[in-house]
Write a structure and sequence with these properties.
Structural class: mainly alpha
Number of helices: 10
């Protein structure tokens, strides 16, 4: 598969953000590291924030693809759900994801352009489909009784994102320990399945 200039820029951004931090990486520095002109960088990314959002989406996609591969050999619905939830929580709490997402939080808080925000959110949400796809499969196989799958997925996201991500992203709580992650996964699965799982009579 041919490596595009966009791929080269993204790779350079990952390395630069890891070495210098997001705040200390200018578009000038990024273009120099990618060995492309600054105008080429702006051809693909309108701002550093847009580039960060692209990287966040890629991180999410890779993590969820890996999680989906791992549940292929798991037959128990609860274990499948727990594995998907833990994969998301591990992603939320990774240093790379937190560092990048803090940039987007600042972008959304201080940027006034609603169109840019809407476009950025849509680009990220398109990546967040693995649990949605899993829920659809469980409904199709009649293992879960859900009338609104998008709403059910939003419920799951809210149950884990506040304790595992938002408090940490804004710096008001420490990262979850491994035990706390497991407890959150188990509580979330208990709550969700108690409501949506088809009863066995």
């Amino acid at each position: 598969m041919k490596t595009t200039k966009k791929d080269i820029i993204l790779l350079a951004a990952k390395e630069a953000f890891r070495e210098y931090g997001v705040d200390n990486t200018s578009m000038d520095k990024l273009s120099a590291l990618a060995n492309v002109s600054k105008s080429t960088v702006y051809q693909y990314f309108s701002s550093k924030e847009a580039l960060v959002i692209e990287l966040l989406g890629d991180l999410w996609q890779k993590a969820m693809d890996h999680a989906e591969e791992q549940i292929l050999n798991i037959s128990d619905i609860r274990l499948q759900l727990e594995h998907l939830l833990l994969s998301e929580i591990n992603l939320f709490t990774s240093e790379e994801y937190l560092s990048l997402s803090k940039v987007t939080i600042g972008y959304f808080l201080y940027r006034d352009c609603a169109v840019d925000k809407k476009e950025c959110i849509q680009r990220m949400v398109k990546k967040e489909t693995k649990i949605l796809e899993w829920l659809q499969r469980m409904v199709d196989s009649k293992q879960l009784l859900i009338s609104d799958i998008s709403y059910a997925e939003a419920q799951l996201q809210s149950l884990i994102s506040h304790p595992a991500y938002w408090c940490q992203a804004v710096g008001i709580a420490p990262l979850l320990t491994e035990d706390e992650k497991q407890q959150l996964v188990q509580r979330t699965a208990d709550f969700f399945l108690s409501y949506y799982q088809k009863p066995n009579f």
